[in-house]
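step: validate -> pass
step: tokenize input -> pass
step: predict -> running
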Amino acid sequence: MCCGTTADIVRYVFRTGGDGHLNRNAALFSVGVKIEVKKPLKGHTVIVGFPGIGLVGPIAAKHIVDSMGMELIGAAFSESFPTVAAIKNGVSLPPVRIYADGEKKIAVVLSEILFSDKTAKALGETLVETAKNEGAKRILSIAGVLVPTASSRVLWGAGSTKEEVEFLKGYGIQPVEKGITTGISAALLVKGQETGVPVALILGALRTKEDYRTAAEIVKKLDEMLGLDVSYGELTERAKNIEKEVCNIFARSKQRDSPMYG
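step: predict -> pass
step: emit ->
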């Protein structure tokens, strides 16, 4: 177990009851997802980076984790996850990992795996429930959207509430006027609205699927918003190497049901 002993782990498990019917303490899905954390997340901003178009989410999230030297403090598990494990320095890592910097109160949830719609919904909802129970400040989901005609490095955003939209606008992030999102990001936004957990989505415009500068722009914006104190200028150079790491795992986890972005 990567995340500590039973005594120091807080577990969140949301699933249907044994009789197949939903109960008040169960999230609204049938896929069981378990999240374990060994350190508190009270007051933390939780950055979520999962695969989508251009792999912006995991590339930016991994750069933040590496640059800040974040500690692995938790993970998510489910029988519905693809049988794939990331390996670093010879040691296997959970498919969905939670890192944190307690001093800056920043957490990062990172995965290279593409999940089915049903699993993405369950995982997103469980992340929101975990954030709520832990007293996290906000969830920030990061992703990319392909816009070949984009004339500049535009960042768009959406929020679970009007307050979250205003929060994003305060940092120059343009609200999405009309559109849809799917997968993890959609689950986070919907569950955040339902539970009152502040959730914001930041989308970077990609001119091509290999547009590494978008990941750098998102990291730069997160640095402005959260005071990460990370180097983002070198990310465009590191991104190709990071992408290779991400793609190796991503390719093995590809499933038929894939999100548009997020």
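step: describe -> The two ends are 28 Å apart (CA to CA).
step: cleanup -> pass
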